[in-house]
């Protein structure tokens, strides 16, 4: 099992001025019901965020619901692309759940680029809690032919 011995250092937050993304459930500032995740760039080419999810996001008692975990991983990869000036949409998302993610405890998500081929981007994201890899995802994103 992969270990994580660090908490994501707070660096310059990644922001998007795109009005179409401001109501995003995961990272949009204008969504009063959203998670409002704030992503930062790391020196190693990854982006990430530290956050805590409360009881409102649980599935089984004390555990974060799987769809919320998938949303967080997808958002990390999307925000990686934003950090590179790329607006793309998820076309495939594969999530592996390794261990239950507990509500009320600090989480760290990180994302990085695997490869780019034309308008197609492949990324991966990992979710850590208490030094353990809890979930990971790989995804493909496509830049639309007609710019959003």
The span between the termini is: 39 Å
Helix and strand composition category? mainly beta
* CATH class annotation: Alpha Beta
Q: What would CATH call the architecture?
A: Roll
For the secondary structure, the number of strands is 7
CATH-defined fold name: Thiol Ester Dehydrase, Chain A
Counting structural domains, the number is: 1
N-to-C series of helices and strands? EEEHEEEE
* C-alpha Rg (nearest Å): 15 Å
Morphology call: globular
> How much helix is in the residues?
10-25%
Q: Specify the biggest β-sheet.
A: 7 strands, antiparallel
**Number of helices, counting only DSSP H or I runs of 4 residues or more:** 1
Description:
- The protein has 148 residues and is mostly beta strands.
- The chain has a single domain (13-142), classed as Thiol Ester Dehydrase, Chain A (Roll), CATH 3.10.129.10.
- It is 12% helix and 34% strand.
- The protein contains 1 helix and 7 strands; from the N terminus they run βββαββββ.
- The chain has a 7-stranded antiparallel sheet, covered by helices on one side.
- A hairpin with a 2-residue loop joins strand 5 and strand 6 (120-129).
- It is globular and about 45 Å long.
- The model is unreliable at 1-8 (pLDDT under 50).
């Amino acid at each position: 099992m992969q270990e994580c011995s660090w908490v994501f250092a707070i660096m310059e937050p990644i922001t998007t001025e795109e009005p179409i993304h401001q109501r995003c459930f995961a990272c949009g500032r204008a969504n009063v019901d959203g998670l409002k995740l704030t992503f930062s760039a790391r020196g190693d080419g990854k982006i990430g965020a530290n956050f805590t999810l409360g009881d409102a996001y649980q599935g089984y008692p004390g555990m974060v619901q799987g769809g919320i975990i998938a949303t967080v991983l997808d958002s990390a990869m999307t925000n990686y692309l934003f950090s590179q000036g790329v607006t793309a949409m998820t076309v495939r998302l594969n999530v592996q759940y390794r261990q239950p993610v507990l509500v009320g405890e600090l989480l760290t998500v990180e994302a990085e680029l695997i490869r780019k081929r034309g308008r197609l981007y492949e990324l991966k994201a990992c979710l850590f809690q208490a030094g353990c890899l809890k979930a990971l995802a790989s995804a493909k994103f496509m830049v639309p032919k007609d710019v959003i």
